[in-house]
Amino acid sequence: MNNGNEVLQAPQRPRRFSERELAKAYVEIVPSSGILLQCKLCSEVWSPNIQRGGKLPRGYWKCPRHCNV
Ligand SMILES: [Zn+2]
User: Fold this and answer.
1) For the chain, which residues make up each domain, given as ranges?
2) Nearest 5 degrees, angle CA 59-CA 42-CA 65?
3) Sign of dihedral through CA atoms 20, 26, 30, 36?
4) In what order do the strands lie in the sheet with 45-46?
5) What is the model's pLDDT at position 34?
6) 49 CA to middle of ligand 1, Å?
7) Confidence category of residue 4, pLDDT binned at 50, 70, 90
8) CA-closest candidate to residue 44, choices 27, 19, 60, 22
9) pTM of this prediction?
């Protein structure tokens, strides 16, 4: 996960669906995937299940393995 020297900051809840906000939760948007998200800690990829109207479900940014919660 990390090399032991790097101190990770506690993940923060992203306020919006933006690369910068998601980075605070150790999440990134998979390039050219559209809307798939990837955990920077374990590399797990998931779909945030964006709802009709573009609404994001609660906790959409959470890694399925709970790395960032
Ligand atoms: Zn993870």
Assistant:
1) 19-49
2) 45
3) negative
4) 27-29, 37-39, 45-46
5) 76
6) 17
7) low
8) 27
9) 0.82
Q: Residue range 13-35: average pLDDT?
A: 92
Separation of 57 CA from ligand 1 center, angstroms?
18
Q: What are the beta bridge partners of residue 46?
A: 37
How many angstroms separate the alpha carbon of residue 53 from the centre of ligand 1? 27
- For the chain, the farthest-separated pair of C-alpha atoms sits apart, in whole angstroms, at 43
User: From the CA of 7, how far away is ligand 1's center (Å)?
Assistant: 17
**What are the residues facing 39 on neighbouring strands?**
27
- The dihedrals phi and psi of 23, each to the nearest 5 degrees, come to -60, -30
Residue positions counted in the chain: 69
3-state secondary structure of 52: helix
Write out the two tokens for 59.
């906790």
